[in-house]
Design a protein that fits this description.
- The chain is of the alpha+beta class and 330 residues long.
- It contains eleven helices and eleven strands.
- A five-stranded antiparallel sheet has the order 6-5-4-3-7.
- Strand 3 and strand 4 (178-192) form a beta hairpin.
- Helix 2 crosses helix 3.
- The protein is globular.
Length: 330
């Protein structure tokens, strides 16, 4: 059983128990499509982790319940003013969640946190973004009325992911510039670079692919179940962007005047720097050769040069040549 599937299932149990007054083990097994033995192990694991779960017998049936105010002990712990202020301010750092299924939960949490502050404290803290800000990727512009449709798509995809249900998805493909229909086995939703993406196995192609949720035109769920394949803990681990693919060894030479900027940043976890005698730097990366990598290299213009592999150097040279031709004076 993939580790991420177990975590997702246990999170589902907590949400179901929170939303319902009480549920039996049979109820929970039916909702998650696993055996009652698995549910018992999950409940024991959650209890051992400190979640306030307890069971009680009512009319001869055993029910499980999640304590209504699961974290009421926080009242006894007490936040310091600095801790409370830091949490309240951190809402500016999690605005990227606004496009995800957690939007309502995040808004509710900060509303409760805000209620614990006096109007004067809130007014002061609301001024902090003027001197300390976090800037992420800008969210895509969405047509009017699309937010509700996207939420419905996300809800169905979450259902399919949590319960391992196959789905049929209508998707607008940029590569073919047309709408296509896929049978998919969803495995994860990922928020990255200002957008929400779906990782799903496509049986027709026998491979896992990445889809932009923005381009999904429809989702319908099947009753048919699938056995989920394991998904890497770190999505897009071999890409500078939001792609998947096998890594290649890449070496790039940067000119001396851009070298200090290149050295001070970590562009990828596989990065290694080697200083050159002229003050430049050679950057080594083990990443996939995708559009994100090529556009990143091109962004340095004449200050960067691909040393290896030769195929990537030829691709970059071709891109530069074609770009120069567009500026040729007739």
């Amino acid at each position: 059983m993939p580790r991420n599937a177990e975590v997702i299932r246990q999170w589902t149990l907590l949400r179901d128990l929170e939303a319902s007054r009480r549920l039996t083990i049979d109820d929970l097994a039916g909702r998650t499509n696993v055996t009652t033995r698995t549910i018992r192990r999950d409940l024991e694991a959650l209890q051992a982790s400190g979640f306030p779960l307890f069971d009680e017998v009512i009319d001869g049936k055993r029910y499980w319940t999640l304590e209504a105010k699961a974290f009421r002990r926080l009242d006894d712990t007490g936040f310091t003013l600095a801790e409370l202020s830091a949490l309240y301010f951190s809402r500016t750092l999690v605005e990227c969640l606004a496009a995800t299924p957690f939007q309502q939960d995040v808004a509710s949490a900060f509303a409760k946190l805000s209620a614990a502050l006096t109007p004067g404290m809130r007014q002061f803290l609301d001024r902090l973004p003027l001197v300390f800000q976090a800037k992420g990727a800008s969210p895509r512009a969405a047509p009017p009325g699309s937010a509700k449709v996207e939420r419905e798509h996300i809800a169905r995809l979450l259902d399919a992911t949590l319960n391992h249900r196959r789905a049929t998805m209508k998707y607008f493909s940029m590569s073919s510039a047309r709408e296509k229909e896929y049978v998919i086995e969803p495995s994860r939703l990922i928020y990255s670079a200002g957008g929400l993406y779906l990782l799903a196995f496509v049986p027709e192609y026998k491979e896992r692919r990445t889809f932009s949720v923005d381009r999904i035109r429809g989702v319908s769920l099947h009753e048919e179940r699938f056995t989920p394949a394991d998904v890497p803990d770190a999505p897009f681990a071999h890409s500078i962007g939001i792609n998947e693919g096998p890594p290649e060894h890449i070496e790039l030479a940067f000119e001396p005047r851009i070298a200090p900027y290149v050295r001070e940043r970590q562009w990828h976890p596989s990065q290694r720097n080697a200083d050159r005698k002229d003050g430049g730097v050679v950057l080594s990366l083990d990443v996939c050769n995708d559009w994100a990598l090529r556009s990143w290299i091109l962004s340095f213009g004449p200050l960067a040069r691909v040393l290896t592999p030769r195929a990537l150097a030829d691709q970059i040279k071709d891109e530069i040549t074609r770009a120069a031709e567009r500026y040729a004076i007739e």
